[in-house]
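=== RUN LOG ===
request id: a7f3
mode: sequence -> structure
chains: 1
length: 437
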Amino acid sequence: MQKTQEQPSLIWFRNDLRIHDNPVLTKAIASGNPLLAVFCFDPRHYEVTEYGFKKTQKYRAQFLIESSQDLKSSLKKIGISLLVFHDKPENVIPSLVSKYDIDEIYYQTEWTTEEVDVLNAVKANLPENVTFHQEYGQFLIHPDDFHIDIDNLPKIFTEFRKQVEKRCKVRAEIEPSFYHNNFSPSEITEIPSLEDLGFENFETHPNSAFPFNGGETEALKRLEEYIFKSQKIAHYKQTRNGLIGTDYSSKFSAWLANGCLSPRKIYWSVKQFEKEHVKNESTYWLIFELLWRDYFKYSSLEHGANLFKLGGIKQKDLTWDRNEQLLHQWMSGTTEEPFVNANMLELNQTGWMSNRGRQNVASYLSKTLKQDWRIGAAYFESLLIDYDVHSNYGNWNYVAGVGNDPRDREFNVKLQAERYDGSGRYQRLWLQKTLFE
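=== RESULT ===
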């Protein structure tokens, strides 16, 4: 039975800030009920952690502000109001439920510790008559189509990839639904500014490899540019280990992390490009990277909280150091290794670092300096615009030797610098004095 104009259902946006290929939004619209949407800037995400730095720094915050602004605009075009709050979801959602007599809530499934804790806190503050509808929206391969036992996931990615490519299919994108039951809330909210979240305004560094804005509109623009207009995807495998500029990699990861871009949208765009232009190692490699992303997500589903523990998903019995001087040198880019320093300075000044850089600085912290890898993972979480809990902590597990890498290797930073920055151009770019320092 459909509801009255005065009784909407609630869409709780989390890490799915888009209109296209959004199963949560589609299911809510299909109900035929009036709809109201909400998004929360959780103040806990902008507090100082036990390690002495903020859980979320200004780069991620700005990208999220832009993403929520774009989402609000897109939802308005289809008649759905988005209320944005700078408050905890367990405070906001029960208040909205009470005020608008809401008895149905739609949201994207999250399964990592903090997200589950927040969901449980929300549910604890709601009456029993509220019905919850959750949908998976982060995967390339939907869990219902994942014909592999999650509790016995392959221990290495190569085996996972082979099984997925043989046994699983990617679903078609969900077409946007028409919505007509407009609901107008009695209140107007403002999206918080950087100052509201505790930061000063900043200008994008002129050398940033990620000078893009947040939001679905920018994500789709980048997708069109990288794949179809410039056709840079045709050379992706040859350029993906680059260090300078916007086009050595797709840069899709930041929009994927906030759910501004669907992995299926990327997949089917690549397939369209292969059909219309060329199919080669590079087009395959972009899909290969999406499968890596899925692997980390399924791995976190299997291993739960172990992903965040010192012993990692292997549950190793480890004793690692916590030398404040060494940690400070690593974070500030003042170690004995220029290549590490250049990468850390780029991170500190832009919120971005190449994949090659991330592997090297992570290995240097955990294997060479033998420091607690969780501090490095938390530092990445704070600064990286494209922070994704599963990929970030999965990669740190991997590099620190407590994850999915059976080789437990250590990167030779000097050899890596010679191989990927033989001319020293990248190191000079970030180690020289700039007006931003």
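=== NOTES ===
The CA atoms of residues 94 and 126 lie 6 Å apart.
DSSP finds 17 helices and five strands in the chain.
=== END ===
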